């Protein structure tokens, strides 16, 4: 009997242990499942707590008013004049009605020795050419002492003075006002013509004729003029042109602030249009040659017309 009771007790104990084990496993699975689901629920909660992103509509392009467009055109016009109007005025120099005296030509139109940046800086923030009018002349490059050009460099320190010694006068003006269009973003396209003038100093070699009339000397003054076209796309900001995209590269005689002054003044003459070289008879002596040196042998010049009868 006692053995039976022991067996029954053992069975009951085993069943109890198994029951406890099953119960523990069931509890463990429940806890593990909750632990696994909990982060997901938290992530979902975090995700749902974020603001819902929506695609913003593309803002409509702000169109310029007619007044703003006119202001942009006015700035572009001022810029084109400031960029191209300089030196001798072709219309004034070639006007026979001026009845020039040699002294007035020297006083008014002889090549300058410096340029004033005030006007261009008032309407433009575009950097000037690194090889511009005030860049060192060819006499100032390299070892001046070794090349024997120290004295010439002192006399002609920059490109403007150097070219002024090769040609008596040069300059440009817009030939009429520019025509322009304005995009809705304020970009202006401006185009038109520039008229240039040049007259070389090598008077004696060119055979300038001097004759007597009523006891006075007379000689021919024959400045050479022509036109080139320009077309600029201008970016304007805060009342100034901040960028210029030119359709063509202009010579420095037409583009003094942004052109390359290493080129010869006459480099573009073969491309000039509307060419003119009037013969203007002046009374008096030739301009004194000590004001401007004779042009060098390798410099292209515009020959003065030597014939008083032309």
Could you walk me through the main structural features you see in this protein, from its secondary elements to its overall organization?
- It is a single chain.
- It is built from 8 helices and 10 strands.
- The chain is an alpha+beta fold.
- It starts with a helix and ends in a 27-residue tail after the last strand.
- Mean pLDDT is 80; it is low at 34-49.
- Helix content is 33%, strand content 21%.
- It has helices at 2-49, 66-84, 90-93, 102-109, 118-121, 144-147, 150-155, 159-166; strands spanning 86-87, 167-174, 179-182, 188-200, 210-213, 216-221, 224-237, 240-246, 273-276, 280-283.
- Strands 1, 2, 3, 4, 7, 8 and 9 form a 7-stranded antiparallel β-sheet that branches. Strands 5-6-10 form a 3-stranded antiparallel β-sheet, with no helix packed on it.
- The longest helix is centred in the first third of the chain and has 48 residues, at 2-49.
- The chain is elongated and about 165 Å long.
Total beta-strand segments: 10
The proportion of residues in beta strands is 15-25%
The profile of the biggest β sheet is: 7 strands, antiparallel
Q: Mean pLDDT score, rounded? A: 80
**Number of discrete helical segments:** 8
Distance between the termini: 159 Å
Shape: elongated
Low-confidence stretches: 34-49
Helical amount among residues, as a percent range? Answer: 25-40%
What is the H/E string?
A: HHEHHHHHHEEEEEEEEE
Structural category is: alpha+beta
Radius of gyration: 42 Å
How is this fold's topology laid out?
Layout lengths: L1 H48 L16 H19 L1 E2 L2 H4 L8 H8 L8 H4 L22 H4 L2 H6 L3 H8 E8 L4 E4 L5 E13 L9 E4 L2 E6 L2 E14 L2 E7 L26 E4 L3 E4 L27
Antiparallel strand pairs: 1-2, 2-4, 3-4, 4-7, 5-6, 6-10, 7-8, 7-9
């Amino acid at each position: 009997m006692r053995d039976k009771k022991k067996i029954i007790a053992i069975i009951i104990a085993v069943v109890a242990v198994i029951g406890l084990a099953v119960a523990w496993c069931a509890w463990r699975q429940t806890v593990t499942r909750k632990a696994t689901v909990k982060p997901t629920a938290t992530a979902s909660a975090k995700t749902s707590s974020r603001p819902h992103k929506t695609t913003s509509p593309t803002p409509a392009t702000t169109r310029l008013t007619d007044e703003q467009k006119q202001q942009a055109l006015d700035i572009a016009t001022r810029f084109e004049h400031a960029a191209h109007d300089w030196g001798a005025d072709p219309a004034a120099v070639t006007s026979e009605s001026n009845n020039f005296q040699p002294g007035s030509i020297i006083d008014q139109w002889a090549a300058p020795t410096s340029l004033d940046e005030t006007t261009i800086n008032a309407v433009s923030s575009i950097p000037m050419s690194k090889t511009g009018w005030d860049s060192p002349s060819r006499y100032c490059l390299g070892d001046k002492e070794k090349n024997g050009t120290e004295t010439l460099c002192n006399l002609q320190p920059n490109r403007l003075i150097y070219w002024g010694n090769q040609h008596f006068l040069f300059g440009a003006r817009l030939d009429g006002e520019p025509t322009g269009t304005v995009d809705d973003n304020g970009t202006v396209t401006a185009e038109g013509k520039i008229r240039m003038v040049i007259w070389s100093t090598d008077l004696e070699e060119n055979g300038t004729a001097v004759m007597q009339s009523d006891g006075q000397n007379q000689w021919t003054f024959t400045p050479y003029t022509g036109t080139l076209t320009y077309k600029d796309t201008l970016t304007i900001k805060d009342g100034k042109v901040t960028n210029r995209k030119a359709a063509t590269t202009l010579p420095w005689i037409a583009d003094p602030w942004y052109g390359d002054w290493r080129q010869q003044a006459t480099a573009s003459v073969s491309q000039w249009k509307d060419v003119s070289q009037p013969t203007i008879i002046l009374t008096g002596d030739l301009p004194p040659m000590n004001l401007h040196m004779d042009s060098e042998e390798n410099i292209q010049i515009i020959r003065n017309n030597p014939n008083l009868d032309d």
